[in-house]
Amino acid sequence: MPPATVDLSPGTDLGARVAAVRADVTRLHGELVRYGLVAWTAGNVSGRVPGADLFVIKPSGVSYDELTPEAMVVCDLDGALVEGDRSPSSDTAAHAYVYRHRADVGGVVHTHSTYACAWSAVRRPIPCVLTAMADEFGGEIPVGPFALIGDDSIGRGIVETLEGHRSRAVLMAQHGVFTIGSDAKDAVKAAVMCEDVARSTFLAHQLGTPEPLPAEAVDRLFERYQNVYGQGTEGDPR
Q: In the record, which residues are listed under signal peptide (predicted)?
């Protein structure tokens, strides 16, 4: 049950915001299935509740076809359950750590997508050899340290590895992919694009040795894509 000082009932402003994030996070889990980024019950999406120290995340071990907005759980930024009838995802501590230490992050995604996991298994960053990768990630996708689920070690690795990087994706060594975004949708997009470039770059290595893009070209591509490309509203050109 939520603390007495937190009213998440549907008629309140906070309750309405939580309900909106619940619906959004539920829908976005379907995108992980659609793009083939998850198997069985692995993987998760979370979304920060705007204006509150709360986030919504998938419950642990629940099939994707059983997910509903009501099934989602609400946690505080320490990862403690605030609202919901089921246990939060086993990755909740990692998500919570990211939200506590990155105020700019509004969404976090974790997948075990095939090609990205292959790069993580050999602890190799994905080199920036494609313009699409420069557009989306502004350079290589880095590898974070090996860490076990159970505490905030994974979250610390995510935050420390992405510090100073333009990438919104990190390959946690011998584990899988974590992505961040301005909201949950943005983080899901990063997860989709991470697997796409991981696959293309892997295949390129079967043909030869891909040449990294020049740093100047990467900078120009990233700047254009982030600030000029697309028909979105100001601040979200994609």
A: none
